[in-house]
Design goal:
With 203 residues, this protein is an alpha+beta fold. The protein has helices spanning 10-22, 41-46, 66-76, 87-115, 128-148, 162-173, 186-195; strands at residues 2-5, 28-30, 54-56, 62-64. It has 7 helices and 4 strands. The longest helix is centred in the middle third of the chain and has 29 residues, at 87-115. The two termini are 19 Å apart.
Length: 203
């Protein structure tokens, strides 16, 4: 088993943090997105969507999509639970993870892909107006999540979960659009400082 990874992208980092929290170590293969290594025939055979991460099993079968890969490892090694311990927790964590992904991580990604000159050859077509609109959505997400974290220690409630991992990756990836957490979102900043104390944060 091995993981096709990229140290610069947020979705592979989600899996790395998840694995670190589980205490699971597997070999990784670094793939250079900017060098279009995701577009080679060899990579497309593993994932026709040309995206990372990809988990390759020993029999050659491949699993892609970061949350799908995390679900595999959650089932394979339930402890510590990162996706819920009972039906209600599973549903609540899924809800919060999807909210953070759609309303925070995606806008950061779209703002970068549609405004960065470095992405011009990979994001075709680039729609700068859409990129700028997503910068506004990022600001909305920051204000929303800051309000949510005023009343609880973790994104999905009282325990660390994949929803926190997704938020960590979204906040970290804001660097590519020149944004970082600050005093305008004090609750989110405090949460992020606590997250940075976890060993998995450096994954």
């Amino acid at each position: 088993m091995k993981l096709y990874d990229s140290k610069t992208a947020p979705n592979p980092r989600r899996v790395r943090i998840f694995l670190a929290e589980k205490g699971i170590e597997i070999p990784t293969v670094q793939v250079d997105i900017m060098a279009k290594q995701c577009q080679t025939p060899d990579f497309i055979a593993r994932n026709p969507m040309q995206q990372l991460p990809v988990l390759e099993f020993d029999d050659g079968a491949c699993l892609s999509e970061s949350v799908a890969i995390c679900r595999y490892f959650e089932a394979a090694q339930p402890d510590p639970p990162l996706m819920g311990r009972n039906a209600r927790e599973i549903g609540e964590i899924e809800m919060w993870n999807r909210r953070v992904e759609i309303h925070f991580l995606w806008p950061v990604t779209f703002a970068f892909r549609h405004t960065s000159p470095a992405m011009a050859e990979l994001q075709v077509p680039q729609v700068p107006a859409w990129g700028e609109a997503n910068r506004g959505f990022v600001e909305q997400a920051l204000a929303w999540l800051d309000g949510e974290l005023a009343g609880r220690p973790y994104v999905a409630g009282q325990s660390f979960s994949i929803a926190d991992i997704t938020a960590i990756c979204a906040a970290g990836f804001m660097r590519v659009i020149g944004r970082k957490l600050g005093d305008d979102t004090p609750n989110l900043l405090r949460w992020h400082e606590r997250m940075a104390e976890r060993p998995s944060f450096k994954a």
